[in-house]
Specification:
Membrane topology: Multi-pass membrane protein
Subcellular location: Cell membrane; Membrane
Number of helices: 11
Helix content: over 70%
Keywords: Cell membrane, Membrane, Transmembrane, Transmembrane helix
Largest sheet: none
Pfam family, one: TauE
Protein name: Probable membrane transporter protein
Distance between the termini: 87 Å
Oligomer: single chain
Radius of gyration: 22 Å
Length: about 325
């Protein structure tokens, strides 16, 4: 019973982060399942089965808060489902030990870009509103879906930073669209796992409690993402991406850093991350105050100008 309660809390926390930042449900939940000895295919299958419910709840919640661009969902979700099914089907015969560090380097670069861009400059507005092309979203969805199924998580960490970096969609729309499209990915991956390994290695009680925790958190997360300022949200997402992928790289055979080096790196990243969020918060408040002053002064200036124009010389 204690283990089920802990799993439920993990599902709640994971969905709260995933629904507000567009990533981390699969990574968080799968990490816990692997830590207690679940084999990789069964762990990923368990998480994806739970995600069918959590992503549906999350998608509905984001829809109610107008956080979704349905064109983006269609363009990235269908290729993502294809990639997820392929990844799930071949997981048992596929080694991701070589691919993981390479993917982490790419994601780390995107994370640094997102963190610096949003912290230093705020929401990119030069491309905001421009359409996201199918030739960009299609391959992105295919890769993200494949990584998600084979790694037990990755749809958000691959898709969210790539779309955020384009600057063509507001952060809350990026997160809502990624979460909604993940429903298709979760279904496809689950079918692939059921075909590949069957259901005998899946603990459906674990699926249920992960699902319950995620469903409870979904509407809270959708509300949070609508009310967190984009600049601050971008800095927060960038930090998550950097921390997650530095951790993967330091633990990989490519680097194999010692425990002390890992701890020092994590502390340094967290300090920089917290400072970036604090800076973004300060700049957001300053911009908001400036806009308020301009809004107040604009009518007053108009009245003065009108009075001067109407005054006889």
């Amino acid at each position: 019973m204690r283990a089920l309660i802990i799993l439920g809390l993990v599902g709640f926390a994971a969905q709260l982060v995933d629904g507000s930042l567009g990533m981390a449900y699969g990574v968080t939940s799968t990490t816990l399942l692997l830590a207690v000895g679940t084999n990789p295919a069964a762990a990923s299958a368990t998480v994806h089965l739970a995600e069918i419910g959590t992503t549906l709840a999350s998608g509905i919640s984001h829809w109610r808060f107008d956080n979704i661009d349905w064109k983006v969902v269609a363009k990235i979700g269908i290729p993502g489902a294809v990639g997820a099914f392929a990844g799930a089907t071949f997981l048992s015969s596929l080694s991701t030990e070589v691919a993981a560090p390479i993917m982490s380097i790419i994601l780390l670069a995107l994370g640094i870009y997102v963190l610096v861009r949003f912290t230093a400059f705020g929401l990119p507005r030069g491309n905001l509103g421009k359409p996201l092309r199918k030739r960009f979203l299609g391959p992105l969805g295919l890769v993200a879906g494949f990584v998600d199924a084979t790694g037990g998580g990755g749809w958000g960490p691959v898709g969210t930073p790539a779309i955020l970096a384009s600057g063509r969609l507001a952060p809350r729309k990026v997160i809502g669209s990624i979460d909604a499209s993940e429903f298709l990915v979760a279904i496809a991956a689950s079918i692939g796992f059921l075909v590949g390994i069957g259901s005998q290695n899946i603990d459906f009680a674990w699926v249920a409690v992960l699902l319950l925790g995620g469903v409870i958190a979904a509407p809270i997360a959708a509300w949070l993402v609508r009310h967190i300022p984009p600049r601050i949200l971008g800095s927060a997402v960038g930090g998550v991406i950097i921390l997650t992928n530095v951790r993967t790289l330091l633990r990989s055979d490519l680097i194999g850093a010692s425990g002390g080096v890992q701890t020092a790196a994590y502390i340094t990243i967290v300090v920089i991350w917290v400072a970036a969020i604090a800076y973004s918060l300060r700049e957001y408040r300053r911009d908001r105050d400036n806009e308020s002053v301009e809004a107040i002064e604009a009518p007053e200036n108009g009245q003065v100008a009108e009075g001067v124009a109407g005054t006889p010389r």
